[in-house]
């Protein structure tokens, strides 16, 4: 497989939306900005295929020739994320049917039924033609299949395909009835054709809830597989003509609908689009990066970010001077090998005309945004290839699992405010603030690499997980888990015999009941040292079965019963957090975890600076990022080191203003 020879710096480029005379000016400005890469042909299907039997490549040929002449790294889109209007008119069955059961008309993007054979036929034919034509071009560095795969479809095509998918999974009707617990409400089925998709007209409820989680979770798996099959079809079509260029599609962080761990197995390299809002915590952005790196355990591409502002958020704040640079280095720090923008030239019309771009509507280089892009371009150019492929070693793994994401948020009760990503993030944030590196890992990951595995709301315990977790802890691992864990199997049926089911022995506790607290309610937990803190959301009522209590509830009828526990198991231990403690209390618990497991932060002193380390061929690169609004002093361990971005030597007096960044390359600290 080919590799990147430099940090790709560029982004989405749509010269087909502009008159020819602008193209030369684009190139002049790109050179000036240090741009070396362009993502093209993402939305050009109607242009390339104006009718069923007609293909027109002249314009794309010209664009590819122009970029090849400039020795750009071309990221080649396949244009299949938005279909031409003529296709709808002639084949209306290619349109999606939504959750409310409405067949869509032509419009928007991500609008094709993934199980439409007509869509598949046209998409495959288009991609084959593109691969045949451009696959041997040495400047095509990466294939970008489709764009931001997303959404779902509830049409007849999908219903039929769902039945086939289910037959393959369950083999017999009896097994399916049991898995979905269809005896409940007398929903037992006797024929595969009685199965209907769980949308709002059937088992689905308003707000994407469901009467039968088993059906709805299987539908999520099926829909993710359906779209993944579309990706694999395009990938295989490219491979027929191009044996060794990287193939990706751009993902979207913690996007709910697609099981990205499963997707990543089919992709050569993960890429993703990073669009934090003005109020997104930096720890959340970092977690998203770590998740994207974790999908394959490899560096990723940052396929899209805006150089200045978005258009689709409620409040599209400008990125303050320096913020885009700092955000870009945070991205590289967490494992990116590319920095790409959406978009290079700002659209003249339609919904993205107010989406920021390298070249703004004024059309010149005399803008703040352009200057900042150009400065970063020069820095990345000077950095060369030294960071490409570098690792991000970590001693802590946090489990992220799409089955759990779906199941937890489908389940009816006990508390509607339970949100999967927020639960994961609160644990991530602790390690982030301590500058302790984290890997985001799948449920079937290799736990033995980590001193600590954190598994918040591990609601669904699938086959094999109990053994894997017990084996990990038995051999000295430290597991952190808590409420809403161990409760159900892969079909959302409860593990009988007492909560937390398969984790009961491991955690050394029995949870008899789960109390839900409304937003205006709270309880308190009292640690063994007497310190007391608020807790919210849920309260597990815990009986000790070998574990010790680290904190008890101090009110309600279950006052004095354990809320947080620790159990020794083999050579390791399990911490169980049975309620939602306020942040300080969670910190106190996780402080104990890190001391017990001997997990070390990257530097010994506390700082509000974000410190990230990447390693490559026994070199250590330390990123020092100030993502706060205050000026911060340098941790002394970095004094006298040279910032390789600026060439400046840091001193013990160096301070970091907001959005200041430094990058050090050192043998050791
Ligand atoms: Zn469909």
Describe this entry's structure for a reader:
This protein is an alpha/beta fold and 669 residues long. It folds into three domains: 313 residues, Alpha-Beta Barrel (TIM Barrel); 202 residues, 3-Layer(aba) Sandwich (Rossmann fold), CATH 3.40.50; 57 residues, Immunoglobulin-like, CATH 2.60.40. 30% of the residues lie in helices and 19% in strands. The chain contains 17 helices and 25 strands. Strands 10, 11, 12, 13, 14, 15, 16, 17, 18, 19 and 20 form an eleven-stranded mixed sheet that branches. A nine-stranded parallel sheet has the order 5-4-3-2-1-9-8-7-6, with helices on one face. Strands 21-22-25 form a three-stranded antiparallel sheet, covered by helices on one side. Strand 6, helix 9 and strand 7 form a beta-alpha-beta unit. Helix 6 crosses helix 8, helix 8 runs antiparallel to helix 13 and helix 10 crosses helix 14. The longest helix is centred in the middle third of the chain and has 27 residues. The mean pLDDT is 97. The structure holds zinc ion. Zinc ion binds next to helix 6.
